[in-house]
Amino acid sequence: MSMLRGSLAGLVLGMAAFAASNSAPVTFNKDVLPILQKNCQACHRPGELAPMSFLTYNDARPWAKAMKQAVLTKKMPPWFAEKGHFANDRTLSPETINRLVAWADNGAPEGDAKDKPAPVSFQDGWNIKPDMIIEMPNDFHVAATGTINYQNIKVKVNFPQDMWVVAAEMRPGNPKVVHHGRVMVLPPGAAWMSKAAYGEPYEEGSEGMGGAKEGTDLLGKYNPGLGAQTFDVEDSAKFIPKGSDLVFNLHYTSIGTPQTDRSKVGLVFAKHPPTKRYWMSPGTPAAFNLVIPAGDSNAEVVSEVTVGVDNAKLVYIQPHMHLRGKDYELRVTYPSGESETVFKGVWNFDWQVGYQLAKPLLLPKGTKILAIAHYDNSVNNRFNPDPGKTILWGDQNWDEMQSGFLGLVFDMKEDANKAFIQSGPSLLKRGTTAGPSLAVAEAIEKK
Fold first, then answer.
1. This prediction's pTM
2. What is the fold, at CATH topology level, of the domain defined by 291-446?
3. CB of 298 within 8 A of CB of 376?
4. Domain spans in the chain, listed from the N-terminal domain onward
5. CA distance 282 to 434
């Protein structure tokens, strides 16, 4: 509480200093619109996630007081990292917050039209300018009610040559029912999805899925608030081998009426072959050993991977949990034995943000990456679907997960399938744990 009082006191002093040094009134056209263009309009525009648009004065004016409250409480822009330095940090400076507060407190004036900056140009709804757009060939029909298992749809592309991708953006055709989605590279000869027909949906574990996902790099991803992803870190890019297809992996949720979806992904290709490869495994590290006891308000779940390639650099972190998630920490232990926390933050299910490291972190071969997450499975968690139930790993929102989407860059000669090697607690079988919940897990196993 003392820290909160200190930060509020600092903000009040900052507002006083701002008011004293700025006698001219804060207006929308001169002061507020540039802030909204830089920090808000990617989501606050028609067709995007946010429920209201901030493109024009008439759009934004009714929300002036709500904006003030949102920035003072740090609810907006959504950013949940508490430890780490990130290139895509969305937090607002005290001066920026003070400008928005002053505008709201002084009647939210529009100001002179000549002060208005030019509108930001959005590329047909995209946050990137795609060189290629790949869309699911058929609509997926979402039932009005019931549980919908994850769907996998192989899309024929057959890239005519090796391609390098520096940016990708997955966009749901119907965001009302697409909870999240992933697009993965399916290289020629891959066992996974080898028996699947193009354009047809396959549930996880069904016969058409084939073998393991070796070689299937994660190309594009959709989560609420995530946006486009870029891969040009230190002259790196994602690799699509000649002859590859794509697989759309989708999590749908029913909303009470029948719906359809046809999602797509946009790609930006490199202008020249890069010197390094950007690799992101679909969900690593993953705590299949997850066990959360009924009623536990601070259950800890730990997973681990070991870096299996030389001179890799960590460039991206995106935690993943469900409705009981509280916080997530990523800790690395180097072969020397030294350890450091590279990320720590609270979890927000509605805004599943990705974090791009401001400075890529060198991870020598053999470095262990430890993910530590906490969960509230008690009645005090208003989002908890069932506090009386012991929770294991599962795909649906009322189940739980603990995984991370980590981006590495490394030399072309390295085997990408060895980038992340499951180790430590992650090697335990599903539904067991080496932590305090071992007795609970053993009891479940006996049943």
1. 0.84
2. Jelly Rolls (2.60.120)
3. yes
4. 2-115, 132-274, 291-446
5. 24
* Tens of pLDDT, residues 280-327: 876 778 888 899 999 999 999 999 999 999 999 999 999 999 999 999
Which of 125, 104, 135, 108 minimizes the C-alpha distance to 43?
125
Report how far residue 227's alpha carbon sits from residue 220's, in angstroms, rounded to the nearest whole number: 10
The Cα–Cα gap between 382 and 61 comes to 32
Using DSSP bridges, classify how beta strands 229-230 and 151-155 pair: parallel, antiparallel or unpaired.
unpaired
For the chain, first and last CA: distance in Å?
45
Mean per-residue pLDDT of the chain: 87
Angle between the N-to-C axes of helices 94-105 and 2-21, in degrees from 0 to 180, rounded to the nearest 10: 70
Strand-pair partners of 373: 301, 328
DSSP structure class, residue 118? P
**What CATH number should be reported for the domain whose range is 132-274?**
2.60.120
Per DSSP bridges, beta strands 163-171 and 236-240 are: antiparallel
Helix pair angle (94-105, 64-72), 10° resolution: 150
Contact, 299 vs 375, CB < 8 A?
yes
**Do 132-274 and 291-446 have matching folds?**
yes
The CA-CA-CA angle for residues 194, 195, 198, to 5°, reads 90
Cα distances from 135 to residues 214, 295, 350, in angstroms, run 23, 43, 25
Q: What is the pLDDT of residues 386-400, one digit of tens each?
A: 999 999 988 888 899
Cα–Cα distance measured from residue 320 to residue 251, given in angstroms and rounded to the nearest whole number: 14
Number of residues assigned to the chain: 447
Mean pLDDT of 209-238: 85
